[in-house]
Amino acid sequence: MHLPHLFDPKNLLRDGHPRGFTLLEILVALVMIGILSAIAAPSWLGFVNRQKVNTAQSAALTLLRDAQSNAKREKLGWQACFWVDDNKVLAAVHRTPSDNQCQTSNGQPLIQGDSTAIRFTSNFAEDTTGSGKYRVQFKYDGSVNGRMGKITFTPRNTDVSPRCVIVSTLLGAMRTAKDSGCD
Asked: Where are the domains of the chain?
């Protein structure tokens, strides 16, 4: 097979003008892409952090509602527990044991992926060990057993506004809030 027309210098030029881009044009395009990336990166990171906090808030509300619905369905006490281990926010939902402690053996990360990017604070009651495991207990009828409160999520190392889940009545009403609603 003979393809001399592919390597003919006359085919590389059309109307006396070279095809393609010059080195200067390529460098200018790369510099422009770099500048646009530098402008967009902080916004993107803020968006990702906000999404992680929103996901944690949603997951916490789901766990609390699971514990409450399990308590109503089984007519037994259930609790949702939250704690930090290795900078990861972990959570578990289980029946309320007689010693009122959180069972950490079935704890799962609150969010999938990088759960170390989120930190939480809570004014819920700690379990009886005093080890930083916070719990919300629900009685057999779904009402709160003991203290009402909130769990607040913020990303580590950034100033994204907080998101929280609030257990606001003894009957077990829950709601979410953000920004100043978490104060």
From this structure: 23-182
